[in-house]
## 1
Amino acid sequence: MRKWIAPTGFLPQDPAHPSNEHMEATMNTDAVASPALRESPVDSSFLAGNSVLEVLGLVPRPGSFALEALEGLPRHDLGPTQVLCYSGRPVAQVDSYAGARLIDLLDACGLSERPRSELKRCVVVARGDDGYQAIFSWNELYNSTIGEKVLVLYEKNGEALDAHLGTICLISAGDSRLGPRHLRGLRQVAVKML
């Protein structure tokens, strides 16, 4: 068991813990599938900078992940990448991006353990700190080539992401035009059932 600081509203309501403050809680990190995640508790300095990614909704083990925990997941690199907006206008040209696959993060939270009949009805909603959202169906992530290239990014050209992208961002590199599902400041991934 490790101590971690939960962001406001993340833990279920408990009369002993006021909801308007950050709360300390004990989390059984042994229940998290990835050894890298077990070794990387959330650090309060990431909470202060809002650099924690929450995974919640219909996952068996919802949680908050600091940058170090994401870096502990298998790393995937994209080579030269051009980000185009929906109209086809170039937005960015990057030599390389690196991050973890969204499906690896979801699997670390136990999503693949749910019954297949439920998974087929699930959508994954990623939300940036500006409220912008990208939506993926379970089938799109786990049963198409798109899912292999949906990355939670933490590195650009061998360094931390630019400030305007946030500490963590998301890209769907298998899309024809990457701009519409390129989230800056990724803060939350929620699994919902239709």
## 2
Amino acid sequence: MKQLTVTVPGKAVISGEYAVLVGAPAIAVALDRRAVVTVETVTADYHVVSTPGFATGSW
């Protein structure tokens, strides 16, 4: 099975989180926490999402 893992920095939006949807500015900062996602090919007819600290779901 092929597997791909990607990690990205977290962010915090100080102001304007939803305002950017209508073209307004926002202030955001990067955090020293990271999100990690791993995608793996499987031969099943369904998908499984597994997140540490949360229930595993499939569809």
## 3
Amino acid sequence: MSEPGKLFGIQKAAEADIDDFRQDLGPFVVAAETTRMPMVFTNAKVAGKPIVFVNQAFLTLTGFEEDEVLGRSFLSLIEHDSDPEALAEIQTAFEGGRDLQTQIRCCKKGGSVLWVLIFINPVRDKNGDLLQHFASFLNIDRDRELEDHLRLVLEESHYRAQQSLKALTALAIGALRGAVAQNVVDEFERSARMIISEIAKNRPDTDGSQTRNAQTSAEISHAPRGYVSREDV
């Protein structure tokens, strides 16, 4: 069969699934069509869990047309480079017919992606047999952007605090040396190194900067006695 013929057959099968879906769920479909929450239903009885229904809110969110998603596997909506653990959770939820809530990157038309919080629930008949999976989407793309920005701000704050403490420690050691007993200087230096080490340990390492921070206490302990660098003042 030619490629256009195959696509036509898939579309016809998807339309038949939608008719069955509407008959099975009746009034619920009307509610799903009008809600502003993006929603997708899949056929749980077919391998690949093909999509049998999407509402307008989902089409608006992703930019797809209805005929571009009907009949496709649900996982085709998910970015291939998404968290493998989240993908495995979705597959397990489908196979086990259980509820799931997770964050994932959803594909949009044109190749872009957005972060969504996805809720998956099984739909069963009166005998308890699994018919469909119902998935709703919450757009959290803006939240993730703000989260990433906040993380960068916090990382920079951690680094600046550590650098300030490093400079103050070096100045204090230089001032104490010769003014108090050496054991007092040594104890002060040891305590300062411990504090700086704790700051470095608790700082998120999203850009490799934790390695840079871990060197700070070593720089102090290996610096010449009384040495204060130009960077530190």
